[in-house]
Amino acid sequence: MSDEKRRGAEEVEDGGPGAVFMSFVVMEDLLDKLKLLNYEVDFCRQFGFKPFTRHYFAIPTNPGEQFFAFTSLAAWLFTCAGKQFDQPQEYDDPNATISSILDQIRQFSYSVDFPPSKLKQGCGEQCISVLDHAADEALKATNFTWRKPSYPEEEMEEDNIVDDESELNLQKVENEMEHDVEDDFEEEEHILDLDGLKKMHTKKDAGESSKPEDIMQSNTDAAEWKLEVERVLPQLKVTIRTDNKDWRVHVEQMHQHKDGIETSLVETKTYLDKLHDEITRTLEKIGSREKYINNQLEHLLNEFRAMQDQLAETKERYRQGSGGVTERTRNLAEITEDLEKIKQDMEDRGTSMTDGAPLVNIKKAIQRLKNEIMQMDIRTGVVEHILLQARLKDKTSNLQGVGDDMDNGGFDYKAY
């Protein structure tokens, strides 16, 4: 957990928290550049690739597929930039392909400050950076230049307030208020207010006493008054803006929709009635035709049912018979196997009875025994002869020893 926090702090110190998502932004810019180069037709259709998504090289999905797409796209961009670069194959050596791509990027005067193994994944910040530089060079080769954006000029609206249904002037508002007051008075006509009548009489008398005796004359210039009225008139208008959340607007919309439904229903009802009549007539025709067909084919249906019953009986008999045949076939196989064994035994016995090979083998064995007996006799004779000679030598030596002892005047009886 501490390592993750430390890495997060390092990333924030290096480029801020948004640096982690910078590859997504560069990938979107790269996709716009590829669209300017018309890669969907010149690259995707020619080499059998699908158009890339916005974050295809920013998110790892399938390393093998992404690496092949990365190398193929880089080679195509180098070709668009006017460089001679062979299109890589799927089973080429990845180290050699990456080395060629980095050499070509260095020829464009771009510095490579990451190890080549970062490109083996086929995605990531390094792959997007290489493709972005290659796309820039391809756009330069096509003489494409980025122009300054031209913003549309906004026309200044005049401060003219257009009279519409949502605008009311003060005179209309006063008329409506007076109309409401009159309605209130009409509703309360049955109530006799004596205090109100007294006040009205007192006000009437006071008004008659306060009337001026001379005619009042205005000292205001009529032209100036008209100018002042024209200047102040726009400010005296009251603009009531419609609010979609107001219930009155919803009620008005409900009434409008109801009127539209009623008018549409009048037109649609006639078509629906006609369609209902046609469907009813068609169903009646279908029912009458069905009855007619059933009456015509009733005897055939009966025959068909009878044949189905016979077929079911025949299948049942066949199933029973096939069960007996299976059992008998198994018994026949066992009997046949026993018969084959008996035949084999009889053939072996007949062969042994008529064949003289055993007799010949016996004679040969007897002859071998005779030879071996003769050899044993010879060996026995040789051994007896050797033993006889050994005994004679011992006897001779013993006799010589006896003679010597007798000569010396003594006789050794232990020798015997």
Sequence-ordered SSE layout with sheet pairings:
Elements: H1 2-15, H2 22-36, H3 39-47, H4 63-80, H5 94-107, H6 125-141, E1 167-168, H7 170-187, H8 194-209, H9 222-232, E2 238-239, H10 247-296, H11 298-354, H12 357-407
Antiparallel strand pairs: 1-2
Helix pairs in contact: 2-6, 4-5, 4-6
Describe this structure in words.
- This protein is an all-alpha fold and 416 residues long.
- Helix content is 70%, strand content 1%.
- The chain has twelve helices and two strands; from the N terminus they run ααααααβαααβααα.
- It has a two-stranded antiparallel sheet.
- Helix 4 runs parallel beside helix 5 (94-107).
- The protein is elongated.
- The two termini are 113 Å apart.
- The relative contact order is 0.03.
- Mean pLDDT is 77; it is low at 1-13, 157-170, 184-194 and 206-210.
The SSE order reads: HHHHHHEHHHEHHH
From the spread of the alpha carbons, the general shape counts as: elongated
Radius of gyration: 64 Å
Annotation field: number of helices: 12
Gap from first CA to last CA? 113 Å
Characterize the biggest β-sheet. 2 strands, antiparallel
Strand order of the largest sheet: 1-2
- The quaternary organization reads as single chain
Mean pLDDT: 77
Count of DSSP E strands? 2
- Strand percentage: under 5%
Give the helix level as a range of percent: 55-70%
Features of the shown structure:
disordered N terminus, elongated, 416 residues, mainly alpha
What's this entry about, in short?
With 416 residues, this protein is mainly alpha-helical. It is 70% helix and 1% strand.
